Amino acid sequence: MARKLLLNNVHIEGIHTYDVYRKNGGYSAVEKALKTMSPDDIVEEVKKSGLRGRGGAGFPTGMKWSFLAKPEGVPRHLLCNADESEPGTFKDRYLMEKIPHLLIEGMILSSFALGANQSYIYIRGEYMFVLRIVEKAIAEAYANGWLGKNILGTGYDLDLSITPGAGAYICGEETALIESLEGKRGNPRMKPPFPAIQGLWQRPTVVNNVETIAAVVPIVNDGGDEYAKIGIGRSTGTKLISASGNVNKPGVYEIELGLSVEEFIYSDQYLGGMKNGKRLKACIPGGSSVPILPHYLVCKTANGEDRLMSYESLADGGFQSGSMLGSGGFIVYDEEQCIVRNTWNFARFYHHESCGQCSPCREGTGWMEKVLHRLEEGHGTLADIDLLWDIQRKIEGNTICPLGDAAAWPVAAAIRHFREEFEWHVNEPKESQIRNYGLVAEKSFQTENA
Amino acid sequence: MENNQRIELPQHLLDEVQRVISLFPEGKQKSALLRVLHIAQAHFGWLSVDVMDYVARLLHIQPIEVYEVATFYSMYDTQQVGKVKLEVCRTGPCMIEGAENIVNYIEKKLGIKDGETTADGMFTLKTVECLGACGYAPMLQAGEKFHEHLTEEKVDALIEAYRSNPVANYMGENQNG
Question: Do residue A329 and residue B134 have CB atoms under 8 angstroms apart?
Answer without folding.
Answer: yes
